[in-house]
């Protein structure tokens, strides 16, 4: 029986949601280039596309956006639960707890309306917990703002700048979906048992909490900080890390053998942020140096910048706290998770892989 550690190169599902070409460095959403969508579309356009299989007309987009706005506010029971949770609980744990408690009409198969409720409520939960962690009251959603602008508003209490909205929109569009990653696979496995949508999303949140999946942007910031505070040159510091066998966070990807197309798009987005020219040039210089050194120390591995490298740079430019990075990722990826759960339900078979026993045998 074939054994593939980590299920590498094992196909576990057919999908019409997204396609990744790791050799060419491309990412498609329902046949559209994700990079191009990040430049020209709003988050609502892409959420509709992923959930429905086609881009919306203007009327469909208006209806979809209006529906999301009506679903944003936290119900009173969730507000009470949020206030009762331990203050030292991590934001990911709080998000998972609140999602698991978000009741509604659910069953099998999951319905579009359930997915929209989760897409709408996740930003509100994240922002409410962020404010509670800072000793502040939650900020109610503003129905005059679109999905991304409203999220930034709920985090800060201030109407965001257009450049900041555009930058975060691009990031959220580019991270809304990415194939059979660990959290998406977890969601589909749970959905294959005919569990409800909330259970599948909570499983995905649990998978995303791990440092190897959802924690990478924080590691990139630590890398930036090490370089900025080092007494030696950037090259010397990076060489020392590689010689100690440390991983350079923000570089390398299980799928892409060239620069992550999402990183290319976010590099361009970073240029649009005001007063970020120096930071951008530093980030680009570090990327080029690290890529050269990785080719030297790990020849043949083809380790290039991934989405988390420039995501960290954008999060820093927007002054989002590191604890908010992974939950902000959830604000977008919940769209992909829901899309996969719905797709799984349409042609379901319970996931049941085999294992290869390598323990002791009886005499």
TrEMBL record:
Give the record's GO CC terms: cytosol
Q: In which pathway does it act?
A: Carbohydrate metabolism; tricarboxylic acid cycle
Q: Which reaction does it catalyse?
A: oxaloacetate + acetyl-CoA + H2O = citrate + CoA + H(+)
Recorded hits in InterPro entries, A to Z, give: Citrate_synth-like_lrg_a-sub, Citrate_synth-like_sm_a-sub, Citrate_synthase, Citrate_synthase_AS, Citrate_synthase_bac-typ, Citrate_synthase_sf
Recorded GO MF terms: citrate synthase activity
Show the coiled coil region(s). none
Q: Where are the transmembrane segments?
A: none
| One example of a Gene Ontology biological process annotation | carbohydrate metabolic process
Highest taxon in the source lineage: Bacteria
SUPFAM superfamilies registered for this protein in UniProt: Citrate synthase
Instruction: Fetch the PANTHER family from UniProt.
Output: CITRATE SYNTHASE, CITRATE SYNTHASE 2-RELATED
What is the recorded name of this protein? Answer: Citrate synthase
